[in-house]
Amino acid sequence: MLIRLPSGYHFRRRVPSHIRDVIGKKELWLSLGTSKRETAKPYACAVYAQTERLFRSVSHIKTELNENENFINDELPEDTRELFHLLIEDYHHQISLLKQQYEHQKLRHSIEALKSLEQLEKTQNVAERGVQLLKKTFSKLQKQEPTDKSLNALRNQINEMQAFLKPPQTKPSPLFSKASETFLETKTNVKQSVIDGYRATFKRFLEVCGNKPLRDYTGEDAGLFKSLMEQLPETYGKQRNDTRTIQEFVAVANKKNLPRVSGKSVKNHFTRLSGLFKYFLLRDLVDKNIFTGGWQFDTKAKTKRVRWSDNNLNTIAGQPWQFGTVSNKTANMIVGIASYTGMRLEEICRLRPQDIKEIQGIPCIIVQDHPALKNQPWTEWSAKTEAGSRVVPICKALQKAGLLDLAQRATNQGRHYIFHDLQFSGKDKKRSAHFQRDFSKLKTHLGIGKSVVFHSFRHNVSTKLRNIHEHGEGGLRESWIDDFLGHEGNNKSVGNTVYFDDVDVINLLKVAESVQYPDFWNVEYLFLKKE
């Protein structure tokens, strides 16, 4: 009902479906003209009361007519049509009156606030003159040798009035360099790559805006930082040992007219800085968070990710696997699992023999959390979301390609992971890093563009499944597909969110077997051995 947007609070209410033909809208929106919740809330309640009155009146008349929607739209008697029109006109009139009422109220509050300010200034002026007079009186009394009691009383009165006139003291604000280190010390349960990201952002901010107490930074500093970050070249951050400053990067990008970083990257920098300022704002060490508010970023992806076409699949099928870090058999199986299940790359690369189980006689992959091995904390892993923990039946194509045999061999040999030739690497200690790099090199060498990546196999599976009609023979329910892919799903009905806990594995198998590819897509012989 009450929506907070950068422009302020808005009232929003859905029009009941059975009267939309009369109202002519699906939703009613109204700007409340304020960014203060305490003002917006009573205003929205008043608007709600008027919309409820309108909805009830229209519903009552439709019930009395007892006719279908076509009659309402096409054959409504003139007098009834006019009645509906009058009800809607009256509603708009009442909303207009409310708007005027709250505009007057805002003006009255502003006038009262101005009067209060004027009174405060008058009080301060009187108090200052009073202090001067009291000091003169104190000096005269000292010369007349008064009692200590009268002098103390006068001294206390002077101190109280001076305390009233003294502006409130603010806590000293720490330097940005010190504040950033204090903030990072609170990030105890995050990956090292996240900490490195924060440090990179803080470093660039110091280069642009200098090292000052946090309170001294203004929106102008934030704007200057945003402007320079948006001019960085697209290749920024790709070379770890590049020591150039942000100004040097921008100068080169301008001189060579290079493509620039995405708005999403700039927004990520603002998000990190906003987290820092929020931390100290809660502790009264800054006056405002200069990185929140109406800042706008172009977050549209520069490269739209698309699924693998049959032509692209045919291009990589049968190619030699030229990379020694991962065997061609492992590459076959990783790509095969992704193309038939839509599993994420790291989910596949971390598969363990105990993740392959039979449920109701059906071999399945169990995507589940992994506890850390002894003295190897990087082996701990969790599914991406709650929906990411799921059961994925293994289709006949993957069984034929030897996935079950591969899992059994890993069990027999006492290996912890199914794909033994993958290693943990990179800042985030991922098992997928080397394969992802090699696969990207392969597809680029074959002329497959940037819009098609490994994750596009997930798009393939989703597209193939959602093109199968829900009803009739072979139909797949949306909730089955979401459960199979580990999506949270769009269907938020009570039946799905409260009473529908788990999809039966038989239905999930039906989903798994519905993913079909052309005959040339043979997982067992997808890539040839290195020539």
Automatic annotation (TrEMBL):
Residue span(s) of domain Tyr recombinase: 303-513
The Core-binding (CB) domain, residue ranges: 174-281
Keywords of the record: DNA integration, DNA recombination, DNA-binding
GO biological process: DNA integration; DNA recombination
Domain of life: Bacteria
GO function terms (MF aspect): DNA binding
UniProt keyword DNA-binding, yes or no: yes
Keyword DNA-binding: yes
Similarity remark: Belongs to the 'phage' integrase family.
Protein name listed in UniProt: Integrase
Organism whose genome encodes this protein: Novacetimonas cocois
Highest classification ranks of the organism: Bacteria, Pseudomonadati, Pseudomonadota, Alphaproteobacteria, Acetobacterales
